[in-house]
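Person: Please work through this fold.
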Amino acid sequence: MEESKRWFTESALFGDVFAANRLGHEAVEKGLGDEAISWYQMAADQGDSYGEFNLGLCYENGIGAHVNMKKAKYWYQKAALKGDDQAKQRLKEL
């Protein structure tokens, strides 16, 4: 597992958005919200709709940050504009 995490981390740091999102998910599972937001932000900064959606979830649910519905909607909207159906659904429900 250590070796796997090392490779995912290296991949994410070199721009792999899949790896960044995966590390974000692992951080959420371990209760490390600040770390999760960092990984999701890394993916979102590269225009990844999945990273944007994940940031929206973090802000909506207070994972690694205070609940901030304005930021949640902002990130959901960015993802929705790229065709993310989950983000579109969250926007409808908010």
About this structure: The mean pLDDT is 95. The chain has one domain: 2-88.
